[in-house]
Design brief:
Blueprint lengths: L1 H21 L4 H20 L6 E3 L8 E5 L16 H11 L4 E15 L5 E14 H18 L6 E5 L4 H12 L4 E4 L5 H10 L2 E6 L1 H7 L11 E4 L13 E4 H10 L12 E6 L9 E5 H14 L8 E4 L6 H12 L3 E4 L19 H5 L3 E4 L1 H18 L1 H18 L8 H16 L8 E4 L6 H10 L4 E5 L9 E2 L12 E2 L4 E5 L15 E7 L6 E2 L3 H7 E3 L5 E11 L5 E6 L3 E3 L5 E3 H8 L5 E8 L6 E7 L1 H11 L6 H6 L1 H17 L10 E5 L18 H7 L1 H9 L1
Parallel strand pairs: 3-13, 5-6, 5-7, 6-10, 7-8, 8-9, 12-13, 12-14, 14-15, 15-16, 28-29
Antiparallel strand pairs: 1-2, 2-19, 3-4, 10-11, 11-21, 16-17, 17-18, 19-20, 20-23, 22-23, 23-24, 25-26, 27-28
Helix pairs in contact: 1-2, 3-4, 4-5, 4-8, 9-10, 12-15, 13-14, 13-15
Amino acid sequence: MFLFAWQFAICLNLQFCQAKAQNPISMNGYIVGAIVPIVLVLLRNSRRVKKRGVLVDVGGEPGYAIRNIRFPFPLETAWEGVSTLAELFEQSCKQNSNKSLLGTRKLISSEVEVTEDGRSFEKLHYGEYVWLTYAETFAAVCYFASGLVQLGHKKGERVAIFADTREEWFIALQACFRRNVTVVTIYASLGEEALCHSLNETEVTTLICGAKELKKLVNISGQLDKIKHVICMDDEIPTAVSGRWAVTSFADVQRTGYENPVDADLPIAADVAVIMYTSGSTGLPKGVMLTHGNILATVAAVKTIIPGIGSKDVYLAYLPLAHILELAAEHLIVAVGGILGYGSPLTLTDTSSKIKPGTKGDASVLAPTLMAAVPAILDRVQDGVRKKVDAKGGLSKKLFDLAYSRRLSAINGSWFGAWGLEKYLWDLLVFKKVRAILGGRLRFLLSGGAPLSPDTQRFINICFGTPIGQGYGLTETCAGGTFSEVDDTSVGRVGAPLPCSFIKLVDWPEGGYLTSNSPMPCGEILVGGPNVTLGYFNNEEKTKESYRVDERGVRWFCTGDIGQFHSDGCLEIIDRKKDIVKLQHGEYVSLGKVETALSICPYVDNIMLHADPFHIFCVALVVASQQMVEDWASKQGITFTDFADLCEKEETIKEVHSSLAQTAKKSRLEKFEIPAKIKLISSPWTPESGLVTAALKIKREAIRRAFSEDLAKLYAS
């Protein structure tokens, strides 16, 4: 009916044009010209809001609970007879034996580039992908599993994987699952103290890592009590570790397993698959215990949400496999018979920092159809495209801005935006080149790990022509919680509950968030279902504080996030209990909300808002975008010795502060939410610096300590 009405409106427009051409003063033309807008408005207003979540009666403390509209009960598996990740992997390998599964690019050359200011950067030249089939991957997993036994790894002992995402990571994980070995996952960027804590707390006896990570262990080798075996994923083992441990290469373990095969010892759904250490945004990281059943529930649920996902899909794997988002995504791709091509954030595109100029990035070579991303990476993609467009200037920039404006109008519901043939022309003339950045075939993108700004979401929608499934979940819920569907074009929301989860809001009176609030119920978000994990390893007190089991046996996790439900059953994250600070005059400032709003300022690479209860205003530490700030300085004729010098100049601070104020105004922030003073930071915050997590979330307390003097000066000045 909708399609017919739209076609009818187009026909009316054509008749109007013909009538006007034949008789410029014909009343028919005027009548039709008047009818068309009316028809379009009626069409627009007649569209019904699609219901995506519905109220559900659940146990536990009183609240407002929603479930996925299509699933009355939480989903545990989508595959008959499959209850563990080991069974899921084996089944898919048998069904897709001759298909390609794991791909890694061959390194052709590596060279060091030295800049004018004396800094050196490694530049890499990679070739095409080299593939392992499902059958070959399964064989490699079985060999490695047998090799672990021959190496001396005993039943009940734990293995830790400490490495960047790569095919050996995935093979080692599946091998451990075949022997019912619990895997401790650790971010490759984790600091020495947190690394020591993770390995010792879980009493890891076998450590699997890359050569780069092995070098990091040298300084703390004397503090690692239980490690007996170290397996290096690279053939060249660093000489610095000789004598400290018996180090075996990954290939040697596989070779030993091939020569001495051992039968599988498969897990059950309730067995702990992974102890996943969080990135530790506050204090030491906590180890979350994830069972096979927990992870499988999330994988099964997401499978029902992504339309047409199957064996033709190609997934670019580059996020940390030590993060539940990536681990769940890769299992989903394997489950449907898809292809996994490995890359890294530093080699993702043709202009990535580690890619040799003139050579191809991972996305250009692989041409993925599916990707996962965290908001920080999508923000960088957006910044990169905008900078390139601004640098071209002239007609190219005007054409891009016009195309973007027309598509934005259409997506926002205007019938006078770019639809039909016009949309196709803009895609061909403008956006095709942008889409080539990520290979040109991307059809769906999953975003998680942190809030995605509406501006970035719209930019990706338009320029890359792909819907973004924005999800909400935590390590404690195996990334499962909510997920926005492909036909939901709204921004700022995180979708309806996944089929594996109930989402419940409970009152938080202190913050004024109540389920009785109008027009939308609000409260702290609780996630319940089979994807909710067992708790924190060796931390019963924290587990009791954050987890609940209701009288019906449903397990719940208290997230500490504040949300509100829209009428269609979709969730919006609006606050976080720990991020709310009360200023001296009684106003509440939500740090995370303000940071998300201000992060779209063109001069900002990263930002941390700081509010003090003893002051009436807030301040901000701003990691400045070097290219944008330097471009502005060049246009203003400002001279400077280096970027650090430029960030100290009063006129630079004034310009960035003014831009932040404009951004805040567009985002409708209150006056007390806008930072009254700012400090510009010239050096980026990286996981290696300890100021952001591996998922690129800011570590608020670490930043506060590192810049305590600067913060004190901002309040004192």
